Amino acid sequence: MQKGRKTMRLSAQEIYDRLVNDDHILELEGQIKFYLGDVDIIVKQKDVVGNIMQEWLQGWLDKRGIEYAPSENTQMPPDFFLNPDDRTRGLLEVKAFNRNGTPGFDIADFRMYAAEIQEKPYMLDVDYLIFGYDMSDDGVVTIKDVWLKKVWQITRRMENYPINLQVKDGVIHKIRPGVWYSERATDYAIFDSLEDFIAAIEETTFKEPKLRDSVASTWLAVFQKNYKARYGAELNVPRWNDIKDKYDLVTDKKKEKAIEYYEKCKSQKQKVDERVLKFQQRIIEATTDKQKANAEEGLTRALATMETAIKKLNEAKENCRAVGVDIEERPQ
Amino acid sequence: MQKGRKTMRLSAQEIYDRLVNDDHILELEGQIKFYLGDVDIIVKQKDVVGNIMQEWLQGWLDKRGIEYAPSENTQMPPDFFLNPDDRTRGLLEVKAFNRNGTPGFDIADFRMYAAEIQEKPYMLDVDYLIFGYDMSDDGVVTIKDVWLKKVWQITRRMENYPINLQVKDGVIHKIRPGVWYSERATDYAIFDSLEDFIAAIEETTFKEPKLRDSVASTWLAVFQKNYKARYGAELNVPRWNDIKDKYDLVTDKKKEKAIEYYEKCKSQKQKVDERVLKFQQRIIEATTDKQKANAEEGLTRALATMETAIKKLNEAKENCRAVGVDIEERPQ
Question: Which residue in A76, A129, A141 sits closest to A106, CA to CA?
Answer without folding.
Answer: A76
